[in-house]
Design brief:
Layout lengths: L6 E13 L2 E7 L15 E5 L12 E3 L2 E3 L9 E5 L2 E3 L4 E7 L5 H8 L5 E8 L10 E6 L4 H9 L6 E8 L13 E8 L10 H7 L7 E8 H14 L7 E7 L3 H10 L1 H14 L3 H14 L3
Helix pairs in contact: 3-4, 6-7
The structure holds flavin-adenine dinucleotide.
């Protein structure tokens, strides 16, 4: 089911500073009670924010089973966030927001109060280790910490995983309950738009265990590109053995201005990647190569 086949209005029922750079928001409401989880541990949805001067998100229109905002002028801001926890009985959802300078979503989260309303689409995700994976390497920066936490919490008993997480401050570390056999490596103070991410070097330094494994990586887009080149190009892993995702982009505004110049060319490159890539992962890698060739 497409992520955009659902739309729910969600009401803030609680907001707390979870760690120095993370705000946890609880959502509820009758409409959110109809949310259908994809069941994927890294499932994300689009949070739809109210337009300036309004206090609730505009309702999208439904066309051919898909919700959307066809009018550019009235389209509200939307950002991707991970469903950190969904309790279908209590109809409660938790989303953890990294707070940073600027940004509609980060500023909304910082000011969120009980009774505030946002929209939410349905959710989908990518995490999916092959059945023969004897070990997993899970790598995340703070934006992907909610997804990494849920993946760890949902590991089957005895599943072997090494988790590398980059946080801004040592106090941003979190603890997870798990039935898996998990080791942790926390990196402090790097990445997050402050310095280059240390995650690509940490992935490269990880001594690969024997036997087939699986890598899930999510973080800043240029760090994810570096890791994809290593895993796909140098290690030569097949697409089924990794999921490498860019969750956000440092200095997004500058990148978007450069992207605008080659927008049509990149649209064709994306269509080409989707037509020749043997799966979504491969298509993503081919499109990323086209972006890089265009200097993006
Ligand atoms: C599948 C997926 C799941 C995600 N899950 C989560 C999640 O659970 N929690 C979460 O916090 N984020 C998550 N993100 C990342 C989040 O969507 C982005 O960080 C988003 O850009 C934030 O929107 P904004 O409106 O605050 O900032 P934007 O308007 O997008 O950007 C404003 C400025 O802030 C910069 N910026 C954006 N994000 C960050 C950041 N994290 N740190 C420093 N600078 C930043 C941009 O480069 C830009 O200069 C996820 C992204 C994806 C694709």
């Amino acid at each position: 089911m497409s992520r955009h086949a659902q739309f729910h209005e969600a009401i803030v029922t609680g907001a707390e500073r979870l760690t120095p750079n993370m705000v946890r928001i609880r959502f509820g409401g009758v409409d959110l009670g109809r949310f259908v989880s994809s069941g994927q541990a890294d499932e994300r949805l689009s949070v739809i924010f109210p337009l300036p001067g309004t206090d609730r998100p505009p309702r999208p229109t439904l066309s051919n089973g898909i919700y959307g905002y066809p009018d550019d002028a009235t389209r509200p801001p939307m950002r991707s966030y991970t469903v950190r926890r969904w309790d279908p009985v209590a109809a409660e959802m938790i989303i953890d927001f990294v707070v940073h300078e600027g940004g509609v979503a980060a500023q909304w989260a910082l000011a969120a109060a009980v009774g505030d309303r946002v929209g939410m689409t349905g959710a989908d995700g990518w995490y999916g280790p092959p059945v023969d994976a004897g070990w997993q390497l899970l790598v995340a920066d703070m934006t992907a910490l909610p997804a990494a936490g849920r993946i760890v919490e949902e590991l089957p008993p005895g599943a072997r995983a090494h988790v590398i997480i980059e946080v801004i401050d040592p106090a941003d570390e979190q603890r997870f309950e798990t039935r898996g056999d998990v080791t942790y490596q926390w990196l402090h103070g790097t990445g997050h738009g402050r310095t280059e991410s240390a995650l690509p070097a940490a992935v490269r330094a990880f001594p690969l265990p024997d036997g087939p494994g699986y890598l899930w990586f999510a973080g800043e887009a240029s760090a994810s590109r570096t890791v994809r080149k290593y895993v796909r190009g140098e290690l030569g892993w097949p697409a089924s053995r990794f999921e490498i995702l860019g969750y956000w982009r440092v200095r997004k505004e500058e990148w978007l201005a450069r992207f605008d110049v080659v927008r049509d060319e990149m649209k064709s490159a994306l269509a080409h990647a989707n037509s020749v890539g043997s799966n979504k992962n491969e298509a993503r890698a081919l499109y990323d190569e086209a972006l890089e060739r265009a200097g993006l």
